[in-house]
Write a structure and sequence with these properties.
The complex is a heterodimer of chains A (117) and B (376).
Chain A lengths: L1 E7 L5 E6 L2 H12 L5 E7 L1 H14 L4 E4 L2 E6 L5 H15 L3 E8 L10
Antiparallel strand pairs in A: 1-2, 1-3, 3-6, 4-5
Chain B lengths: L16 H4 L12 H10 L1 H13 L10 E6 L3 E3 L9 H8 L13 E5 L5 E5 L1 H12 L13 E8 L3 H11 L9 H13 L7 H15 L3 E2 L12 E2 L2 H5 L3 H14 L8 H13 L8 H15 L2 H20 L9 H12 L8 H4 L11 H4 L4
Parallel strand pairs in B: 2-4, 3-5, 6-7
Antiparallel strand pairs in B: 1-5, 3-4
Chain lengths: 117, 376
């Protein structure tokens, strides 16, 4: 199982990423932020498909990617709303038949989820 | 085990590239130099450079601008330790072929003029050698002696061979912005499409290849350009140019039929190159069934070809480490080999060339377990 997550930073910026271990990844975000940050939407599925989903966003959603100088980050511009991005991701998954599904909402490392076992 | 993966249709949306394809036609736009000055003045790097000039007290010495004159070719010498050896084939095959040669395309002789009045070539020895040899061959009407033939010289007055050496480097790449592979391709396409000029078979062939790709909604674009976000675009121009018309046609048709919603990963070109070149000697055919099953395999197991290619890189690393004890250099043949081995592993029944499937015969076992488990 591999995971794709949508996160909202402490400043309200939307981000995304992939991981094989959402608990550890979430801890890293919390440690850097100095507070609990949730993976607002967490998807799980075939590793190659989770990676393909992330790659598609980086390539085709490029106009909305937050740039620091020439560095394309894994965060989105201020003007992207969480529900719009969530809808975009769901649409990609459905239209392109990616084998990932939403497995949790508002997940953080303090929660004991079935996916940790 | 029978092959049981199925390709799932993806809604075909209009591709914006069909309308905005920069290869389709030039913009026809001509701007004045002020436009470029304005652009530079807004650029952060340019502002930084201007500031550095001021801080360093740097001034533009106009007396150093090269001078222009028409001089006898016989006055020009070539310092062999500044310029390269003469490449006779370059003169014969690139400058002078009768179907290509045009005096209007000749560059002036770039040289230094010493305090003794001697001209020493910095760049353009192939041009002047060709011109002199054409006169020598009696092929230039009205010119009997190349030594007294007037030719444009562009020179700087100096006795410094170090300057000549540095200038040679600048005129041959260092310090000049090189044309990208894409720009070279675009120029060739424009010459044929916009100018209607078809005397260079190389340019005609390039335009034909681009046309074949475009017919299937596949488009060469510049690396790092905004176009790369659109489906059907690709940036690996040299691999594309190395394919035959058939290889391009088959690869682009497959992409447009099954992965029209994705950009093109270069592995597509390597896979179809190997299919076209290796199926026929093995008396195998790239059937419509095989193409559909391969699309199903890519879509079901990897999501898209880019992800398949990434997985192949990992497989090759694991395979070579296990076989040789070290990670061997990447080999582009692996895309087709891994794809067809996976196809067999998943029960594919089409006849396949052994030259693809058996070169690295257990490559497939190095894919991740979550992929291989799907075959069980």
């Amino acid at each position: 199982m591999y995971y794709f997550y949508i996160i909202v930073s402490a400043f309200g910026r939307i981000g995304f990423g992939i991981t094989s271990n959402p608990r550890e990844r979430n801890k890293q975000y919390c440690s850097h932020s100095g507070g609990i940050v949730d993976f607002v939407y967490l998807y799980g599925g075939l590793s190659t498909h989770a990676k393909a989903l992330e790659r598609t966003i980086k390539t085709q959603y490029t106009d909305h990617i937050w740039m620091i100088d020439d560095w394309a980050t894994e965060w989105l511009n201020d003007d992207v709303a969480i529900e719009d991005f969530h809808e975009y991701v769901d649409q990609l998954i459905t239209e392109r038949h990616f084998r990932v599904t939403q497995v949790s909402k508002n997940y953080n490392f303090q929660q004991d989820l079935a996916l940790d076992k | 085990m029978a092959f049981n993966l199925t390709y799932q249709e993806v809604l075909h949306k209009p591709n914006p590239m069909v309308k905005i394809n920069p290869m389709k036609q030039g913009s026809g736009k001509i701007v004045n130099l002020q436009d470029r000055v304005d652009k530079l003045n807004k650029n952060a790097a340019w502002k930084k450079t201007k500031k550095a000039w001021i801080e360093q007290g740097k001034e533009f010495d106009v007396s150093r601008i090269p001078q222009f004159t028409m001089e006898d070719l016989g006055l020009l010498d070539i310092a062999e330790d500044v310029q390269r050896e003469l490449d006779e084939k370059h003169c014969a095959n690139r400058i002078a072929p009768p179907e290509l040669f045009d005096p209007a395309l000749l560059q002036p002789a770039l040289c230094i003029k010493t305090s003794k009045g001697k001209y020493i070539s910095i760049n353009s020895q192939h041009t002047v050698s060709t011109v002199a040899a054409l006169i020598d061959a009696g092929l230039v009407p009205g010119a009997t002696d190349w030594r007294t033939f007037k030719f444009p010289f562009y020179y700087v007055e100096t006795d410094s061979l170090a300057f000549a050496r540095r200038a040679f480097g600048v005129h041959n790449g260092k310090g000049s912005k090189k044309q990208s592979q894409y720009m070279q391709l675009r120029n060739a396409v424009y010459i044929v499409r916009i100018d209607g000029e078809t005397s260079d078979p190389d340019e005609v062939a390039k335009e034909r290849k681009v046309s074949i790709a475009e017919k299937h909604h596949c488009f060469p674009v510049e690396v790092g350009s905004d176009y790369t976000k659109y489906p059907g675009t690709f940036t690996n121009i040299s691999t594309f140019e190395g394919l035959s018309d058939d290889e391009i046609g088959m690869a682009c048709a497959w992409h447009n039929k099954y992965f029209h919603y994705e950009g093109i990963h270069v592995s597509l070109f390597f896979i179809y190159r190997d299919f076209v070149r290796k199926f026929k000697p093995a008396k195998c055919k790239v059937t419509a069934e095989l193409e559909e099953e391969l699309a199903a395999l890519i879509q079901s197991l990897f999501g898209n070809l880019s992800q398949f290619a990434d997985s192949c890189k990992k497989v090759w690393r694991l395979y070579t480490e296990a076989k040789f004890g070290y990670e061997d250099n990447w080999n582009d043949d692996i895309y087709a080999e891994a794809l067809l081995q996976l196809y067999k592993k998943f029960g594919g029944e089409e006849k396949l060339p052994k030259s693809i499937t058996e070169t690295h015969d257990d490559l497939v076992e190095f894919f991740d377990d979550d992929i291989l488990n799907l075959a069980r």
